[in-house]
Amino acid sequence: MSVKSTIVSQFEQVATEQERKLARLSDDTKLIECGLDSLSFAIIVARLEDSLGVDPFSAERAVNFPVTFGDFVTLYEGLAK
Amino acid sequence: MPSKPRSLWDSITAAGPPAGSLYGCGGGVALAGLAHASILGGRLEELRGRSVLLAMTDQLTAALAIAELDGVARRMVLLTPGLAAEHLPAVIAGAAADARVQDTDRSSPGREIGIGISVDARAPLEPHPVRRASTCETEWILLTSGTTGAPKLVQHDLASLTAALADGPPAPEVVWATFYDIRRYGGLQIYLRALHAGSLVLSDPAEPLIGFLARAAAAGVTHISGTPSHWRRVLMSGAAATIAPRYVRLSGEIADQAILDGLKAAYPEATVAHAFASTEAGVAFEVRDGRAGFPATLLDAPGSPVHLRVAEGTLRIRSAGNAHGYLGVDTGSFPRASDDAVDTGDRIEQRADRCYFLGRQGGVINVGGLKVYPEEIEAVINSHPWVRMSRVSARRNPITGAVVVADVVLAEADGTGGRPPSEALERELLHSCRRSLAPYKVPAAIRIVPGLEVSAAGKLARPDA
Asked: What is the ipTM of this complex?
């Protein structure tokens, strides 16, 4: 499964668990408008660390906080090799 | 002759009528209007000397009621939004509450529970002849979660809650905004600060973040406060530039270097400060140098009104901002250290001239500023027939500071082969957690493990990390 499809399925899974309505995800979708709250994102990041083996936020360098879904995917694609 | 108690209203009108306003989702209310008007429909006198439960959903209504009731009610119990209904009877009994203020909204918590007097609070203010005379020093009760999920009743008064406020003339140009709810300690501090200075923009849980930022901007926000989790959400919203504050404050969670740098980049003109406070210990300090942690020179500083020290690895605070104790059945469990300081339970490590927070002692987990006791979650997981034991711990998280994860040891299979495979088991356990726990307490991940370490004393080993 590609990094992007792993991320998409995590978004869908967590949205279902948190009983939230997920917007259609495209690269331009703003994270804040995709229907998930902070806790949902926290869970997604924790689970992606398990499935992809990386946490792009933990790197010892400044991180540009992602604003769109595309930013979010790029952040992971850059590290998950 | 004893001096007349000085109430919150006395304090904010000492230098003349207050110039500021409180802004809710539906509009603003000028504080000066409280001199001849009331949110309580003219029923303030009925609440004089009583122990009053403040059970509102709306923050603006609550903010106005607090300003009216201090110095009038014997005790005010600030119910936090989202408090589980099952805990209300214990709160009412513990606080000997004999009155309640609620908003007209049907969803006010505990509406169905009988109590001496019920007063409906109605925004906006209605003109009423009000006697703004303070006749007592009101005890303020703040709720904070305990190991079983039942809240503890933390005792404060106006003096302890305002101990960290600098004396100074009102500054009407100061407009505060806060992501916090003012019924929790962090938000209450901002509310009191704002009332003594200028104005305050209150948040609403139903309002999208972008809407709140737009409202804050429209009110001319200059000072704004939230947890690192709130601020990460702002930076991820793409709408950070909606506001241009000159002071940005973080508290309630460990502020790491990434969020401090992110905020400095987003608001280059602003002072970015992180503060440490807890409901029990009060406000300890504020750090403005843009670096994570705090200077070691703050420890054992002679002559400081807030005395900080580290003992047995945790931060202890002694100041006039300390809470007085717990009310009710939890009285004896207040974390008072031997020298009368409050033990915050926050573990500190000193590296060179800087002190850093390592997390909480005793396994308490901070998820986005909300306290989680592992024992409460373990109790839910352990009640499942397939589970022998479990251990809930924190996992560092860039969004909420930490999330909860659980390691679970299964009971011996009874040989009938009825137990589903691990994956289905994990799902089923998560499902049962979701049924009985608040969302932030539900583990982000559950792992089935062969065993868990038990200490020599027979207790579950909890590595402090």
From this structure: 0.90
